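Input.
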Amino acid sequence: MAKNRESRPGAGRDSGSGDSGDNNRDEKRKGKRDSKKSDRARTEKESEWQERVVQIRRVTKVVKGGKKLSFRAIVVVGNEKGQVGVGVGKAADVINAVKKGVADARKHAIDVPLTKSNSIPHPTNGIGGGAKVMIRPASPGTGVIAGGAVRTVLELAGVKNILAKQLGSSSPLNNARAAINALATLRTFGEVARARGITLEQLFN
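Output.
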């Protein structure tokens, strides 16, 4: 009888099937836990970012049947920790235009090196279309002395003490892009020293 029991097909499979089922269940639970953690981390990261609409305009495009109306939104996003971006979104309604602008701004976000006094390491200039922006570092307590779209970009980048001046065009989009262009060219003293192959002490002497 013992021999017949051992030789019965599937007798050995039943003993392991329970273990494998438990393992699969554990793996599924673990996968759900990991996905929840990643979702929580993603929402926390997203909550750090702030969005500001600089301008919303109704634009028309002449097509065969007449004029097609749509909206253009200029949006600046930043986490006030050295990351900022400018984006443009166009859609048939304002909400979708802003959403597209936010997505575009995050895609083109840049890193800005900040000093201990929440300023920039050195003076810089930027160009965006017909607009020119001049940015200079300032001592603690100065505040953000800038106007228009440039002020929005600097505040969302996390800059607290700075002097800025818009030159040329008064277009918000061109000025915002000029500010991003100026901030993108900033380099820390450590980066310059490494590029020259010298130490920081030699750089200042």
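The two ends are 95 Å apart (CA to CA).
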